[in-house]
Amino acid sequence: MFARTERLLLRPSWPEDAQKLHQAIADEGIVRNLVRAPWPYTHEEAVRFATMDHDEIFPSFLLMLRTDDAPRLIGACGLGQHNGEAELGYWIARPYWGLGFATEAGRAVMGIAKAIGHKKLVAGHFIDNPASSGVLRKLGFRSTGKSELRHSKGRGESMTCALYERSLEDAGDDEVPSISSRAFSIRDYFERLQAA
After folding, report:
1. Which structural domain, as residue segments, surrounds residue 80?
2. Pick from 69, 80, 70, 62: which is nearest to 25 by CA?
3. Structure pTM?
4. Do residues 107 and 175 touch, judged by C-beta distance below 8 A?
5. CATH value at residue 129
6. ∠133-134-140 over CA atoms, to 5°?
């Protein structure tokens, strides 16, 4: 599955993405705000992520900044599971912080989530990461007023996480991005998107 936004191409990871992925995420300031990524983030971890199977119900996407040259990997966004619910997660490489890419990618993934049948999304952020609160609010998530301790592999400890939720039933169809499934090979599709 792929999606295009104004500035981004969202696509699954491929084995050859490992090096660029490692370069983009191997920053303690990024990893400490994630639950599942370890610190230090090694090249082997990037290879594992880039080669893992893609779940059609809980897809994960690399965020490729569309440029005049080859697209540039600037982050990731996708769905995971937390306490039996679909959870939105994302990260952006440090040079691209504050430019609206997390919000843009989050909208696309919310549209995909709605298109594949999810009715609601949950999300959270560690309380010392207020920038993520701003992203979630821009995406229409509401604070549940609750928090929980979640273990961060990057920090090596549990931290308080503020919890949010967002119904997708009230999301308009205009929020659903142009998405496509694997009607033909991934590489063929990617080349067609780049040519468009």
Report:
1. 2-195
2. 62
3. 0.86
4. yes
5. 3.40.630.30
6. 90
